[in-house]
Amino acid sequence: MDIDDFWQVIEAARTSTAPTHKALADLLAARPAEETFAFQERFDAVHGAVDRWDLWAAAYLIGGGCSDDGFIDFRAGLIAQGRAWYQRAALHPDDLADHPAVRLAAPDPSEELFYEEINYAAAAAFARHTGDRDAFYTELARRETAPSQEEPEHDMGEDFDFDDPARMRQRLPRLAALYLDDETHRTRRLWPVRWGRAQYLRPPNSPPSAALSLPSPSRWPCNGAPGAGPVAPSRYSATALHRHRGTAAVT
After folding, report:
1. Which among 88, 85, 62, 54 has a CA at the least distance from the CA of 170?
2. 186 - beta bridge partners?
């Protein structure tokens, strides 16, 4: 599946009268089962291309905070908006200030761009062919075996403090104008705690100040709650996401 075909499928799903994730599963199920893997491989590449700190910062403002899981769903949501919005956000994350859902919700968090179910649409389509959703991830994992050459480390760009109002206004001035409060920095702040990118279990009902060994800064929480469980693996492939969250239903 080439990139144009990929975006044509997304556009057809996006403009359907059905919810986008259900329409996407329907469209993929109408194709040969093998094409679900081609779609997912293209999806993972497009999804990974916007795994950047500046876009995570945009998600942090739009969502009232953003965890690792939340950023996975945010990037899926960008894809679900179609090629034009995806490319615009990839070039200039601050242009998301023009997105209708963002402008309508601000200064409150907007959930429309956080679309978890899109991540599982290909698996749902494959299951309609085989009756076995897990087999999709098993085969995908087999195809994702390590290449003979080591892949270069993913570059997320310049990291910066999402809780620094001056830095956020410098990097994302238009989104900051919608979401930041001059006195308290965040208009609808959830938790001013930054978590590391690592797999570990947060003790149930533990306060944000609980002593844990955190290797590097990231963002908490966008779509989760304290005690929600392990942070997603650092490699955000469909297989890793499936292992982390389990199989989500897309009917």
Report:
1. 54
2. 180
Specify burial of residue 203 (Cβ count, 10 A radius: 0-12, 13-18, 19+): exposed
Handedness of CA 103, 118, 205, 198 (dihedral sign): negative
CA 85, CA 53: separation in Å to the nearest integer?
A: 18
pLDDT tens digit string along 169-227? 999 999 999 999 755 444 444 433 333 322 222 333 444 343 333 333 333 334 333 33
Assess contact for 74 and 222: CB atoms under 8 A. Answer: yes
β pairing state of 180-181 and 185-186: antiparallel
Q: What are the structure tokens assigned to 20, written together?
A: 């986008």
**pTM for this model (two decimals):** 0.75
User: What is the rounded CA–CA span in Å between residue 24 and residue 108?
Assistant: 29
Q: Which helix or strand (DSSP H or E) is residue 185 part of?
A: strand 185-186
Separation between Cα atoms, residue 95 and residue 89, nearest integer Å: 6
CA 97 to chain centre: 18
Tell me the one-letter amino acid at 155: D
Return phi, psi of residue 106, to 5°.
-55, 140
Residues 6+ apart with CB under 8 A from 97: 103, 174, 175, 177, 178
